[in-house]
Design a protein that fits this description.
single chain, two-stranded parallel ribbon, 10-stranded mixed sheet, 18 strands, 43% helix, alpha/beta
């Protein structure tokens, strides 16, 4: 069979641990036999980021902006434990996802992959709930400080015109921790426009939530900007029979739990990070969650919502077979190649991306799945547990 040809490269961003292993397995068995792959490859494995002083992450983000479609494997975010585990690290590098998102901007949309055998934990959920996560600022771009002496800390701003503003944050009488977050109005407006545009394209209601009753300036500005940016979309929403409304984050959580699903829930960066994991678990598993970063200019970065599956990786290193769920990784490739085909007018590549998703869902609906999903099924005797490699073989046979 002649392989499907590509005209424009995709940006391939490799990662760490077990997801790196699965990434290669999916690529070799499901992609390369059928597609004459053109890609710009960037290795964001932790040690390679260390070797390049994390410059490779910046280059990957810039390439994603250049070519328009990027596929990213899960990566390690260094913490104190990782510094012990990897003593060769020069410093505690920040999250590569945060770096990429700050360069690309845009909004992250996360949606669960649903199958009949796995029922949502929240029984009244009938349709998927899509999380729209702001991809800039907040705690992910914050600066932090630890102090031991008594003293005062202030928030200080000096404008280019020379105007100065200062507000006392805290009068410390001993050791204290400090954090300064920021966001930009330009980024918030782009976030709002992306959400309204995506809601229209999906014909789904849009919710937005923050905590403006407590954070009257920071969260209050988010709320005001969303209201301002909604004005040009108001009539289109009405014509399409969809709605937009704002509510406090705690009220939104209550409403979500009582709902049937089928809407888009827009959240600030940290809220979206937490709530997307909660929703993915309630719908099934983080390994069954798609994630795409969409910029206002129409660039796309696809990734799995889960982490690097460290525990399975160490079992793999011992030569043991693992039953790590590769579905989200497969969907990264499938959705990314489909989008590349759509942007290039490459019908064959678009169809391949859809067929890869269909083959994966057919495998799951045939009762063949990794153990994490079988544990979520009510009638476990009707399903066959397979290893990661076996599952990919089954998808390949259907593809």
């Amino acid at each position: 069979m002649e392989k499907i040809k590509m005209t424009t490269p995709i940006v391939e961003i490799d990662g760490d641990e077990m997801t790196r292993i699965m990434w290669q397995m999916v690529k070799e068995e499901l992609i390369l036999p059928h597609v004459e792959l053109k890609s710009e490859y960037y290795d964001l494995g932790l040690l390679h980021r260390n070797d390049t002083d994390d410059q490779i992450t910046v280059e990957a983000a810039e390439a994603a902006l250049k070519y328009g479609v990027a596929l990213k494997c899960a990566t390690i975010t260094a913490n104190a434990q990782r510094m012990v585990e990897y003593p060769q690290l020069k410093k505690m590098y920040r999250s590569p996802n945060a770096t990429i998102r700050s360069i690309m901007g845009g909004t992250i949309f996360r949606e669960p992959i649903l199958i009949d055998a796995v029922k949502p934990i929240v029984r009244n959920w009938k349709k998927p709930i899509t999380i729209a996560r702001h991809a800039y600022g907040d705690v992910y771009k914050a600066v932090e400080l630890y102090t031991e002496e008594k003293g005062s800390g202030s928030l200080y701003f000096r404008a280019e015109t020379g105007e100065e503003k200062e507000i006392l944050a805290y009068q410390a009488d001993g050791p204290a921790i400090w954090q300064l977050q920021h966001n930009s109005e330009e980024s918030i407006r782009a976030f709002a426009r992306s959400c309204f545009t995506y809601a229209l394209s999906e014909k789904k209601d849009l919710w937005f939530s923050s905590k403006d009753t407590i954070s009257t300036v920071y969260d209050g500005r988010f709320k005001a900007i969303f209201e301002e940016e909604f004005a040009p979309f108001r009539e289109q929403f009405k014509e399409n029979g969809i709605t937009y409304f704002y509510t406090l984050i705690d009220d939104a959580v209550s409403r979500v739990m009582r709902s049937e699903g089928g809407f888009i829930w827009a959240c600030k960066n940290y809220d979206g990070d937490v709530m997307s994991d909660m929703l993915s678990t309630c719908f099934g598993s983080l390994a069954m969650m798609t994630s795409v970063l969409v910029t206002p200019e129409g660039q796309y970065e696809y990734e799995a919502a889960h982490g690097t599956v460290t525990r399975h990786y160490y079992r793999y290193l011992k030569g043991e077979e693992t039953s790590t769920n590769p579905v989200a990784t497969i969907f990264v490739w499938a959705n990314g190649l489909r989008k590349r085909g759509e942007l290039d007018g490459n019908k064959a590549l678009m169809e391949f991306g859809q067929r890869l998703k269909d083959a994966t869902l057919d495998t799951l609906n045939a009762g063949i799945m990794t153990n994490d999903l079988i544990l979520l099924c009510e009638d476990k005797d009707h399903f066959r547990s397979v290893t990661t490699a076996e599952f990919i073989h089954e998808v390949a046979s259907r593809l």
